[in-house]
What we know:
Residues 19-121 form the FAD-binding FR-type domain. The protein has helices at residues 7-16, 95-102, 137-149, 168-176, 195-198, 214-223, 274-280; strands at 21-33, 36-42, 57-61, 67-71, 82-87, 108-112, 126-132, 153-159, 180-184, 206-211, 232-235, 255-259, 265-268, 298-303, 306-307, 321-323, 328-329, 336-338.
Amino acid sequence: MAAVMSTDQRREDLEILAKKKFNVRIQSISYLAEDILAFEFVDPDGANLLPFTAGAHIDVHLPSGAIRQYSLCNDPTETHRYVVAVLREVKSRGGSAALHDEVRPGTELTISQPRNHFALSKSASRHVLLAGGIGVTPMMSMVAELTRRGEPFHLYYCTRSPIRTAFLPQVMTLVEKGMATVAHDNGNPENGLVLDEVLTHYTPGNQLYYCGPAGFLDAVEAAAAHWPDEAKHCERFAVAPTDLNAAEPEAQTGFDIKLASTGETYHVEPGRTIVDVLFDNGVDIDVSCEEGYCGTCMTRYLAGHPEHRDTVLDAEDRQEFVMVCCARSKSESEPLVLDI
Ligand code: FES
């Protein structure tokens, strides 16, 4: 992902990742489409929430202890609430099913501060938003922001059918203005958006944002292969295949980690993760995906040579942070010193 945002903004967002959490109350739950509900979170005491930018997401800590990431879909100028839209996944690992079945208006949950790895460019001549299914959620906050800025954009939105299309009334208003295109594929991707046509021409200054199921993202990446990396922004809530994260444990080497606060050093064996070893030694790190794509476990390091295996951090972030659920070390002799 090549996020285009100012260094200061990026630093600020990264600092926010200092694992701060707070409680919110579910103010309302509303039906958006078949199997899709919107959850409105507010401060239990009625205070304003922390500001967020279009494209941001939050970690939601579920009653089971699981942590899931959801994009904020409301207007970023709203300070009194966060809204997320949640699709009940057929193969839910407890996240979407728990939200659909177990929480009610009035339930209090813990969430993280918003963070944004999918921010809008501030210097685009035109924004192209591509959403597959529930991947439309960050796009709705982007649409609100771009409308306010008066910047040109077009939203392409592909879903299975009208009854499974969240935000359909709002998007149809954009369609009438020539600012959106909606396609329904009825389960056959060949009937959906013709991505090769949408993405054929890259015009300098255009910025592309895409979010949706893994197959949709892979198709967009193939169709946009000729777009420059700095013009492409992807929000992926599933692991992307890489040579490194496909490596078998036998191909890994062990390495040492050191805690800056205590000076304790621990060995991470092949096949084990930094998070595993920290947990064994009484250091609890919040994790969610455990595959390097959600950002929950991001930790600052102070020395060493990490081998990054995540799909969240860009080159600059990697000078300072590691995702400890999946990162390893390039050095067997020098410890990776973590700011813990
Ligand atoms: S737990 Fe998701 S990136 Fe580490």
